[in-house]
């Protein structure tokens, strides 16, 4: 079957093309609109996916939306009405959205994509789209599947089991009891943008201690069979998308931080970092309890982990280290953009006799970069040697090549690189792309054969280490060689590079190591603050001119600062 998956209207809208179970393309709409995590209907992304597969819209056997609008509308209305009159302001806004065109999604899809056969437009449950993205992309023939998300229809978390091409739900936790929305509410309490900056909390947590853990456990107490609930007296997200917490949270933790005041994490009062550390400890505890229950119901050695909280590297690492599973797989993009792929995969295997699966070993599902030189481009006979020489000279270099990545982070095709040895290396590289939060961690690229020299690596996590989805303890050798890449709690963020997966980056690391004695490079995503990853050469050139970089290499072309 030739299926197009669609996610939209929540966060990072995307489209994905799957042909006979094989992922062909998966592209976020923000790559074209240049609005980070754009929620708009992914019309341009859908057409780009078809172009990648050499197909026309009429060639499709179906289009799959990643949730069921009627079920979601039922949940929105039920929670809004139960909170009335407190929900009066948000009620009218929701009515406008849903009675506009969100309830009539078949018609919206048919109109946007000029696909008139509405009988071939399908819908999946939101949780199942996440579970399918995690399981069908994995290398496992059978696995337990954990999804921890924010919201969809009713379910916010789920336990599932996969075997062959079959995937079945075992248990669910329903709205408003959501760890994902709990995290967003705490992000807002700390003056961050909920949803968009939730991931800041993990980096902030490394500077704190979990002295508020007992309070957090009371706000999200555990229940029977590994479940949890949320104390909704402290939160408003069930009916208000603008103010997510109540005065009760401030009574327990102190006044909320105003976004204009500095975050407290390196001063005598580390309150903000301690709140983040307590939150991190809580989600790890609740994740482990759910994993334990999942293992009882699906006693596998393998865990597939999806949903919004699967982006949390500390949680992924803890599930593998202290959970009942021996191996873990996290899809390249486990948030809603990846659910577009999951929706198509689920319909493929639920409605066909196809028994062949195609594990996703790389995150490069975008279009290859085309040669469109900008003014001042210099053709290089040996771009690899030029890149290596500039890095050895201490330059920070942007390197753009091949297909672009799926997700918020570069995996090596849209990268900023520099020597990790100087004490100021991390700060210097992050300031290049206007990253203003010095507590955010930074990745270290390391060739597979040298990774164990610098990091305490877990077994059973090859794919997760390749896609930089774990944080691990740093060895003393790393702490002395690249101190700026080690977090205050002694952890580091490796991205293990294999010759089979990315031969160009692997070769660069080995040759940099031969010249310096350290086969490591600091790695940051080539995306300006508040913008998505650069897509085409023009994007890269524009971003380059807005940074302090002195060199940009796009395929075999060099741009230098004038």
Describe the model.
The chain is α/β, with parallel strands linked by helices. It has three domains: 2-124 and 337-350, ATPase, nucleotide binding domain (Nucleotidyltransferase, domain 5, 2-Layer Sandwich), CATH 3.30.420.40; 179-329, ATPase, nucleotide binding domain (Nucleotidyltransferase, domain 5, 2-Layer Sandwich), CATH 3.30.420.40; 378-560, DHBP synthase, CATH 3.90.870. The chain is built from 20 helices and 19 strands. It has helices spanning 30-33, 43-53, 69-82, 88-102, 105-113, 126-135, 179-189, 200-205, 213-219, 247-253, 271-297, 313-322, 336-350, 383-392, 425-432, 451-454, 462-466, 476-481, 503-516, 537-545, and strands at residues 2-7, 14-19, 22-28, 62-65, 121-123, 142-148, 155-163, 166-174, 302-306, 327-329, 378-379, 397-400, 414-418, 443-447, 472-473, 491-497, 521-525, 551-554, 557-560. Strand 9, helix 12 and strand 10 form a beta-alpha-beta unit. Helix 9 (213-219) packs across helix 11 (271-297).
CATH superfamily of the largest domain: Carbamoyltransferase, C-terminal domain
**Chain-averaged pLDDT:** 94
Instruction: Tell me the overall shape.
Output: globular
The Cα radius of gyration reads 23 Å
Main sheet record? 9 strands, mixed
Main sheet strand line-up: 11-19-18-12-13-17-14-16-15
Termini gap: 51 Å
Indicate the CATH architecture of the largest domain.
Alpha-Beta Complex
CATH class of the largest domain: Alpha Beta
Q: Based on DSSP secondary structure assignment, what is the total number of beta strands?
A: 19
The helix content is 25-40%
